[in-house]
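Entry for the shared binder. Reason: the reviewer on the internal report wants the predicted structure included alongside the sequence.
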Amino acid sequence: MDVGSIAQLSTTIAETGTRQAVGLSVLKKAQEVQSSTATALLAALPPVPAAPNLPAHLGNRINTTA
């Protein structure tokens, strides 16, 4: 193995590490943007309206035999 090929291999390994670091940084930034967008969307939802005046027993049981 000559010195030129060792230098080329070293450069290739360093470039690969840099590419991976940049890719990971871009991924983290995209996740941060997505998280802030989701938080803004959830904050923009209108409040849930109160249930109409229904009897207290409604919604307490599920009929699983029907």
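Summary line for the report: The CA atoms of residues 34 and 48 lie 24 Å apart.
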